[in-house]
Amino acid sequence: MTKAELRRQYLTKRRSLTADEVNLRSQAIAQLFFDFLTQLKKTPSSVHCFLPIQRQQEVDTWLIIRQLWALYPAIELAVSVTDVATHQLRHYPLLPDTSLQENRWGIPEPISSDQSAIESHRFDLVLVPLLAFDRKGNRIGYGKGFYDRFLVNCRPDCQKVGLSLFESLEQIDDVEPTDVPLSACITPSGICFFS
């Protein structure tokens, strides 16, 4: 199947999940994320996280964010604002009192920031949204390329960690040179590592 066909299939598959199923799978992913964090040689000082699009039934990353605030207050946490004009993501700090509003795709974003944007090379770990992924760490997103353009500017040692409500595909056939592979992917049943 092509990426476009898999994208449609996994969007349908995700919409078929109940709110309880998404919540239970998100809880399992959050627990495994903190297992993953303890396995790292060094605790990241800066983490980029996506905020869930509720109408798309994405992984509830708030379960991770709230625990990071509570357990790792020294970690700088950031989220993106979508710049439609440049097709780029700009990154800003996410604090417990940050005001958010949904953009046209339903993505919660900081309303305004007095703080400077955070450069992509600053992140030690990026949590990456996806619809599906394969055993080599290739991912299928929504097809706009925002995350690939972001990830290519991250440091080579930055951990690029996908969060998936479903297990891996065997292989995604039409991978493009501009696609940036994941370092790992966390599903409700485990952590997949890629070389």
Oligomeric organization of the protein chains? single chain
pLDDT < 50 runs, ≥5 residues: none
Look at the helices and sheets and give the structural class: alpha/beta
Strand segment tally: 11
How would you explain this protein's 3D organization?
- The chain is an alpha/beta fold and 195 residues long.
- The chain has a single domain, classed as 3-Layer(aba) Sandwich (Rossmann fold).
- Helices cover 26% and strands 23% of the residues.
- It is built from four helices and eleven strands; from the N terminus they run H-H-E-H-E-E-E-E-E-E-E-H-E-E-E.
- It has helices spanning 3-15, 19-39, 62-71, 146-151, and strands spanning 46-48, 76-83, 88-93, 100-102, 108-110, 125-128, 132-133, 139-140, 159-163, 184-187, 190-193.
- The protein has a seven-stranded mixed sheet with strand order 3-2-1-6-9-10-11.
- Strand 7 and strand 8 (139-140) form a beta hairpin.
- The protein starts with a helix and ends with a strand.
- The mean pLDDT is 95.
Brief characterization of the structure:
This protein is an alpha/beta fold and 195 residues long. It is built from four helices and eleven strands. It has helices at 3-15, 19-39, 62-71, 146-151; strands at 46-48, 76-83, 88-93, 100-102, 108-110, 125-128, 132-133, 139-140, 159-163, 184-187, 190-193.
Helix/strand layout:
Elements: H1 3-15, H2 19-39, E1 46-48, H3 62-71, E2 76-83, E3 88-93, E4 100-102, E5 108-110, E6 125-128, E7 132-133, E8 139-140, H4 146-151, E9 159-163, E10 184-187, E11 190-193
Parallel strand pairs: 1-2, 1-6, 6-9, 9-10
Antiparallel strand pairs: 2-3, 4-5, 7-8, 10-11
